[in-house]
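Reviewer 2 asked us to include a model.

Predict the structure of this chain.
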Amino acid sequence: MTNSILYTDEQKIQSRNSLDRMKQNENVCLKISYAPNFSEKNPYQRQLSNKLKELGIQIEGIDHRKFFLPATVNRKNTDILHLHWLQGYFRASNPISSLLKVVGFISGLALLKFKGIKIVWTVHNLKHHENLYPLSDSICTSFVSKLADAIITHSYAAKSELCQTFHVKDIKKVSVVPHGNYAEAYENNMSQLEARKLLKIPESSTVFLFFGMIRWYKGVPELIDAFKVLQSESTYLAITGRFRDADEELADLIQKKVKDDKNIKLVTGFIPEKEVQVYMNACDAVLFPYRRLLTSGALILAMSFRRACVAPRIGCMEEILDEAGGYLYDSSSGDGLVQALESANDRKNDLSQMGEYNYQIAAEWSWETVAQMTLNVYQRCMEDDNS
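Predicted model (structure tokens):
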């Protein structure tokens, strides 16, 4: 099975043409503002903005606390405003305040459009994961999908879901640009033996890993239940990540489930970038027991660390993963996750080869190429204005 979001020859030619046009006219420098700016702690934004700068783009992030963007963007003489996560623009202490923030945010975008600034939106998710203030969420996302001159998704599955959910009529304005890999974003010089010694896990064990923020929609309680069905003394599960402050109930539930289980290691809290390799290199496979998703940066991270993956057949998972790189299961089946874990555990010797296969797939998604494809989206926006 061929992964459908590998770059086509046409896409590669478009990317090279974008770079060539920039080189041919050095006096034309696109000015991009992106919002909200989380690049200090977010390697996705950091990698993308750095590579865009190398292509000659003038790019600057906007403080995530500023929701009325014209107050900031106008001063930057911006050609294009590139939006990412929208949730911060309707987050508030109550539903009324949330709606007021949305009105201010959307009014600001309309004003920027009136002044000739193009809007590009990268769709990381279609709604807030905890369904916070659904009315504000729906209004915000719906208006942005209509106001945007161009929309970027990280898979064709995400593009299809976006267009169907928000009735996007101009499908041509939605471009698929794969999520860049993390092969160079994190230190990766630790052996599996060294990593397991640090975590006090036996060298010969099979180790499964859940990595990332622990939230209800990611299905960690169900994962723990499925893991316990294995009843294997030589198999370990590491759950690593932090809880949201609002998820005390989830934290208590998981703490109770893992209590006194010596084969489950729960490490909570923020994981510094230098320590990511400890957990990724200690494991044989990374688990994604998500109930729903649109895009998964954690999946790309696991593939970048040469790890096999276990995931449901939903969203982008089936589009990115195939049977050569992991185990996909039917999330609607009561024992789908259990069967996938059993298969991975029984075929431990194959997991390393699966991880290598995943790395070769992820290597196609270099940030240089992703930045060139993003530049191509920017330039089409500007060319449409001049046509």
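The first strand starts at residue 31 and ends at 37. The domain at 192-363 is CATH 3.40.50.2000 (Rossmann fold). We have added this to the supplementary material.
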